[in-house]
Design a protein that fits this description.
heterodimer; A: 114 residues; mainly beta; seven-stranded mixed sheet; 0% helix; B: 114 residues; six-stranded mixed sheet; five-stranded antiparallel sheet; globular
């Protein structure tokens, strides 16, 4: 299984809502990532988890809260988002940090904040 | 700090013609370089990667890229374009290896004319 899955595919939420994005992989990868991609822009790194520990946080606002409950699962908890947070959120995984391994990307969750 | 510059936000070629997408990088250490493709409303798919094993790298779907250190370039080519190649292409760099966070170029939208 060489797939990264993300749910939901689409999400619409109000600024006062709390929601979560879910990412799952069963490739035995030990590094997982969240990226944010605005329309017609490249993906921007948000968080990196390595062996279930947060290793990189690219100065992301606290209204985004990542969680890695186990080596196969990565969540992104959302609270009090702003309309400018509307974007495609991509999850990726790789064998581990460092080395020449590539990242495998999921299809993304398209988030709209009203 | 690492960075990538993709020349040309849009490239248009005729079906059957040569595809050339340009990428120049900046890195303080020998980099790992990647080309990803993104089809509309989808995640990113790895086309090929450079990890210092060979300067000419062959990827999927007939694409290849050549690493030229003297020119700090990693241009993507395909001898004969197909309609299905129409997509967004991203060049990416990682100093820490492909399993660290990736820094993407701004992307090149490839248009295939019938």
């Amino acid at each position: 299984d060489t797939e990264v899955t993300q749910t939901p595919k689409h999400l619409v939420m109000g600024m006062t809502n709390k929601k979560s994005l879910k990412c799952e992989q069963h490739m035995g990868h030990r590094a997982m990532y969240w990226y944010k991609q605005k329309a017609k822009k490249p993906p921007e790194l948000m968080f990196v988890y390595s062996y279930e520990k947060l290793s990189i946080n690219e100065s992301v606002p606290s209204r985004f809260s990542p969680e890695c409950p186990n080596s196969s699962l990565l969540n992104l908890h959302l609270h009090a988002l702003q309309p400018e947070d509307s974007a495609l959120y991509l999850c990726a995984s790789s064998q581990e940090r460092g080395g020449a391994g590539e990242q495998f990307f999921g299809p993304g969750t398209r988030l709209t904040v009203l | 700090a690492q960075s990538v510059t993709q020349l040309g936000s849009h490239v248009s070629v005729s079906e059957g013609a040569l595809v050339l997408l340009r990428c120049n990088y900046s890195s303080s250490v020998p980099p790992y370089l990647f080309w990803y493709v993104q089809y509309p409303n989808q995640g990113l798919q790895l086309l090929l990667k450079y990890t210092s094993a060979a300067t000419l790298v062959k990827g999927i779907n007939g694409f290849e890229a050549e690493f030229k250190k003297s020119e700090t370039s990693f241009h993507l080519t395909k001898p004969s374009a197909h309609m299905s190649d129409a997509a967004e292409y991203f060049c990416a760099v990682s100093e820490g290896g492909g399993a660290d966070g990736l820094t993407f170029g701004k992307g090149t939208h490839l248009i295939i004319q019938p």
